[in-house]
Amino acid sequence: MSRERTNAMNDPATTPRTLPSPGVGPDNAAFVAAVREGRFIVPWCEACDRSHWYPRALCPHCWSPRIAWRPASGRGTVYAHSTMHRAEPPFTLAYVTLDEGPTMLTHLVDPGAGGWRIGMAVRVRFVASDDGTPVAVFGPA
Q1: 66/124 Cα distance (integer angstroms)
Q2: Is 64 within 8 Å of 48 (Cβ atoms)?
Q3: Which of 11-20, 26-35, 108-117 has the lowest mean pLDDT?
Q4: Where do the domains of the chain lie?
């Protein structure tokens, strides 16, 4: 088999991958509800006025319990990425720094002809998990 054909068969952009459900609990219920409506939101501390990721009951910056959810742009930048070529199907994990400030661990999808690069602009998308719960992933902006 030619090298080009082998690479095309293992391209994470062309092979669908079912992601595990994030589950729904008290800390992420608002996020999951918003994603089901096609909205992307992030937790924001009303005490120190900073956003954070992942969802939690206390602000990791000042430990305040005054957490609110605010609409987010869904835009970010690839901070770091790694493609798992030996997985079947292959997939790419990344840290994406959101325009709102926090950095989140996520999946990257549809890299395009140039592939992934550190500093690349990305935008949120939503895909169904194994139980149908939508999951936020990122693709090229």
Answers
A1: 26
A2: yes
A3: 11-20
A4: 24-140
pTM over 0.85: no
What is d(CA 120, CA 103) in angstroms, rounded to the nearest whole number? 14
Per DSSP, what are the bridge partners of residue 136? 126
CATH of 24-140, one of 2.40.110.10, 1.10.3210.10, 1.10.1760.20, 2.40.50.840: 2.40.50.840
Highest mean pLDDT among 17-21, 27-31, 46-50: 46-50
Q: Are 84 and 92 in contact (CB under 8 A)?
A: yes
Least Cα distance to 99 among 131, 122, 82, 133 occurs for 122
**What is the gyration radius of the CA atoms in the chain, in angstroms?**
16
